[in-house]
Design a protein that fits this description.
The chain is mainly beta. It contains eight helices and 25 strands.
Length: 568
């Protein structure tokens, strides 16, 4: 019935309600602190089921102690009809938090702080102290001053991290060969409140004996690289150190419209022109935090690593439609972050080797010479860069599509196989994977088609969706929308796939019904599409023989459908 809400102002907020007693007139609320009446609210009139809130000022509470507050509801006859009580602590409660801390050089760092009085009693003359947690030395003091109840103060400071503040770590874990590292931990405190943070960095010159300015970057393609438009070149990055473990590379193109790169040293020719590609190398381990942000490797780490631990080399790159690509010793694809590659070319190259053997036989003094020609095809090894598909049922499928330039990951080492696929992305994936097969039939089609209202001309999937609409593969939704950013259901995926295959005469009509246990859930428009795809093995159900037509399509599932199409 009553609720005492005590803030940093000495006021009791009391909510009362007439829950049906006959006389709701002439009510009053009395407030007591430590059994002494300190105030009241009178002349309260409430109809049945009516409620209100009254406010009673309490006397100034000047001591840090617990105060007992009692609230009594009294009727017009002076009878207490309800009461409530609460024990209110009057105290300050200082909190300290540190964030955005990072090294800006080997011996300097910055950090942001928030100091807050979360209690209901003011504090004055506060000082924050920044100290080394190991030897207790003070690096900085910050004058916070006064903090009223609920008040907070924020700021950013720069401070020195002297060499003596770094403490050597040797052999952090027997399972990892980190070598020698050092670290510096700090605590920012205001009274008894504190927050701890720290930095890990590579140790002194003497502790990194195998890497320095004497190292140089080695590639298999020379200083001047040529790439045919659409081709890829593997630079086969290395350094001349005796021990090359724990080396991290960063590869940067001066013009991504000419050549795109990834940090594995893979170059893809995008458009004709000239540019430079710079390769950086440094000693690194993903388990080592260089930024002090308690997270794995980020590009910011390159800015905080001391320059003397980074070596670099710049290469001249020429891309042309008729160029002959420089030869490396491996094949890979560029990770763009999109699910579907812009190109469907097979980068997992094949080599045909032809051998001839000659056999001579003598029959009735006649020499007969017989030559046999045999051709064998050697396939380049499939590379799987994605750590989140290793050992899964779809690992080989996704790795092969990646090597063929059909799909890519959400990052350089993650594919996110369980993420949903957007309608626009799947249409682009189908159109790209079937590639030139559509070009032969577009000349017979109307060259103009209405744009979807929600597919902008500058969206990355615009051309694929419009082409699919022109061919009768993609239909819109209500109000001429395509809903390209919506997740695609499994039955929608089947419909798009079946229409695309029929358009190029690669899907026959099946006379056989599918055998899925939940086929009654399939929408009428998709029944024939699912039947036809099921008959040729492009679409398969789950282990319990369900198709789950209304479920959203996962990235791994979409990849498997495309794999089944190009390998059927």
């Amino acid at each position: 019935m009553t609720k005492v809400i005590y803030g940093y102002t000495p006021t009791a907020n009391v909510k009362i309600k007439n829950e049906g007693f006959v006389d709701g007139n002439g009510l009053k609320v009395e407030a007591y602190v430590n059994d002494e009446k300190v105030g009241e609210a009178t002349d309260i009139n409430l109809a049945a089921n009516e409620e209100t809130t009254v406010y009673i000022d309490l006397p100034e509470l000047t001591e840090k102690k617990d105060y007992k507050v009692d609230i009594k509801l009294v009727n017009g006859n002076g009878k207490v009809i309800d009461e409530d009580s609460a024990t209110e602590p009057v105290d300050s409660k200082i909190s300290v938090s540190v964030d955005d801390y990072k090294l800006i050089s080997r011996d300097e760092a910055t950090m942001s702080y928030t100091i807050k009085n979360e209690g209901n009693f003011p504090e004055s003359g506060l000082v924050a102290v920044l100290q080394d947690t190991v030897d207790g030395s003070t690096s900085k003091t910050i004058d916070i001053g006064d903090l009223a109840p609920r008040e907070e103060k924020t700021g950013t400071i720069q401070f020195n991290v002297p060499k003596d503040d770094y403490h050597e770590i040797e052999g952090l874990d027997e399972d990892y060969d980190y070598g020698y590292l050092d670290y510096a931990n700090f605590v920012l405190s205001v009274g008894n409140a504190s927050d701890v943070f720290g930095f890990i960095r590579y140790a002194s010159d003497s502790q990194i004996k195998k890497f320095g300015k004497t190292s140089k970057i080695i590639t298999s393609v020379g200083d001047n690289i040529t790439v045919k438009t659409g081709d890829i070149v593997d630079m086969n990055l290395s350094v001349d150190n005796e021990d090359t473990s724990g080396i991290k590379y960063k590869v940067v193109s001066s013009n991504n419209d000419v050549v795109s790169t990834n940090d594995l040293g893979i170059l893809r020719g995008i458009g004709e022109g000239n540019c430079t590609v710079t390769v950086y190398a440094m000693p690194f381990d993903d388990e080592v935090v260089l930024t002090g942000e308690n997270e794995e490797y980020t590009e910011d780490a390159w800015e905080t690593v001391p320059e003397k631990y980074v070596v670099s080399k710049t290469f001249n790159v020429t891309v042309g439609n008729n160029a002959t690509s420089s030869k490396g010793n491996g094949d890979d694809t560029i990770d763009t972050g999109d699910f579907s590659k812009a190109s469907g070319e097979n980068s997992n190259t094949t080599t045909t080797v032809t051998t001839e053997s000659t056999t001579e036989t003598t029959t009735n003094d006649t020499v007969v010479t017989e030559t046999t020609t045999e051709a064998t095809t050697e396939f380049a090894p499939v590379i799987n860069p994605f750590k989140d598909i290793v050992g899964k049922w779809y690992e080989n499928t996704i790795a092969e599509l990646y090597n063929k330039g059909i799909v890519s990951g959400v990052s350089k080492d993650e594919f996110a196989p369980e993420n949903n696929v957007k309608r626009g992305d799947f249409v682009m994936l189908i159109m790209n994977s079937l590639g030139d097969k559509f070009d032969e039939i577009t000349s017979d089609e109307d060259t103009t088609v209405d744009e979807f209202a929600d597919v902008s001309a500058d969206s990355y999937y615009h051309d694929s969706i419009i082409k699919a609409r022109k061919l009768g593969i993609a239909y819109g939704a209500e109000n001429n929308n395509f809903n390209a950013d919506d997740s695609i259901t499994r039955e929608e995926m089947c419909a798009f796939t079946a229409r695309a295959l029929r358009k190029i005469d690669e899907l026959d009509e099946s006379q056989k019904d599918n055998e899925f246990t939940d086929k009654a859930d399939i929408s009428a428009y998709a029944v024939k599409d699912i039947n036809d795809l099921y008959a040729v093995g492009i679409v398969k159900g789950y282990e319990n023989n369900e198709i789950r037509p209304k479920a959203y399509t996962k990235r791994a599932e979409a990849a498997q459908v495309v794999y089944n199409i190009i390998n059927k």
